[in-house]
Design goal:
The chain is built from 11 helices and 15 strands. The chain is an alpha/beta fold. It folds into 2 domains: about 170 residues, 3-Layer(aba) Sandwich (Peroxisomal Thiolase, Chain A, domain 1), CATH 3.40.47.40; about 150 residues, Peroxisomal Thiolase, Chain A, domain 1 (3-Layer(aba) Sandwich), CATH 3.40.47.40. The model has no long low-confidence stretch (mean pLDDT about 95).
Length: about 325
């Protein structure tokens, strides 16, 4: 591995993304990405007694599906990196407690999936592991309950708000395989522009996405046109527009090949999700379901995946704190 520029790590022996899996909930199953997921569940509870238990089941079943799809047994996975939005990452730890694999609980808010892949790729790239598991999840009902209002209140949602994706995505990174490869990672810095509106995550996270985007290009010497697609995690429609405009003011035109998983997940006209999707499960399921298949089928050969996160909780919001943003990037190439 080689540290290049300010923040980027380049892999001399790039880890392979061996296989992915994704399971989503009922609203996601009605969206334009539905056919790319491994399984679509018809009920948010999925037979469990609480939304939190259901979210843990999403993680457990997604990882089980992933292991079944891959040629790697659970005994051959050296480490697991996983996280979610719930207090102390209980969806991940409860969902994976029977897996019997050394476990790193990771929190980067909605950037957790790519953060896990960054950390996992360092373990593989350094020779410390042959195979690692990266997983994440989110659930609309459990997230609303924790971060905003009880669903029973039926609070009106402003146009800037986003719909937390119910679902889980997972990937196995390996030291062997024929790609797609993680060639570079650009971990992000905490960027806080003073946004305090907990119903406008896109505005809070867009400056962090911009900082990581520009840093990646400066560190690698690449331009936006190098990639077939530049994909952010969950800026939604509003955040996507903000990032596009901010990038242009800095001399980077990303209009032709940029999109956001929060925009892709739902049909804005028919599904009433306002500014689009959000949550750890947003980029986790969209990458594991759609973009990984595009790479495997060679329909895309180079993707810059930038996961975005709002580093806040219910307490910080109630105390009037602003919302710090974070964005981690990985370059995936065939």
């Amino acid at each position: 591995m080689e540290h290049i520029g300010m923040q980027t790590i380049k892999f001399e022996k790039p880890p392979t993304i061996l296989e992915t899996a994704s399971i989503v909930g009922p609203k996601e199953a009605q969206g334009p990405m539905a056919k790319y997921f491994d399984q679509c569940i018809e009920d948010e509870f999925w037979g469990e007694k609480s939304w939190e238990k259901a979210e843990s089941k999403f993680v457990k079943e997604t990882v089980s599906t992933l292991i079944s799809k891959s040629s790697i047994s659970a005994q051959d996975i050296d480490y697991c990196f996983a996280g979610d939005l719930l207090n102390q990452c209980i969806s991940s730890s409860f969902g994976l407690r029977e897996l019997n694999i050394p476990f790193f609980g990771v929190f980067g808010a909605c950037s957790t999936f790519v953060e896990s892949m960054c950390l996992g790729s360092i373990f593989v790239g350094s020779g410390s592991a042959k195979n690692v598991l990266c997983a994440t999840s989110s659930h609309f009902c459990s997230a609303e309950k924790q971060f905003r209002f009880p669903l029973e209140l039926g609070n009106q949602r402003p146009p800037t708000s986003q719909w937390t994706v119910t679902g889980s995505g997972a990937a196995i990174l390996s030291s062997s395989g024929e790609g797609p490869y993680i060639t570079h990672i650009t971990p992000g810095k905490i960027i806080d522009m003073g946004i305090k509106d907990a119903n406008n995550m896109g505005a809070a996270m867009a400056p962090a996405a911009l900082d990581t985007l520009i840093t990646h290009f400066k560190d690698t010497g690449r331009k936006p046109s190098y990639y077939d697609a530049i994909i952010t995690g969950d800026l939604g429609h509003i955040g996507k527009e903000i990032l596009t405009e901010l990038a242009e003011t800095k001399g980077y035109n990303i209009k032709s090949n940029y999109n956001d998983c929060g925009v892709l997940m739902f049909d804005k006209e028919t599904q009433d999700t306002h500014s689009g999707g959000s949550g750890c499960g947003c980029i986790g399921t969209i990458f594991s379901g759609y973009f990984f298949k595009q790479l495997k089928d060679r329909k895309m050969k180079r993707i810059l995946l930038i996961a975005t996160g709002a580093l806040m909780n219910s307490t910080s919001t109630q105390q009037g704190e602003s919302i710090p943003g974070i964005a981690h990037a990985i370059s995936i190439e065939v």
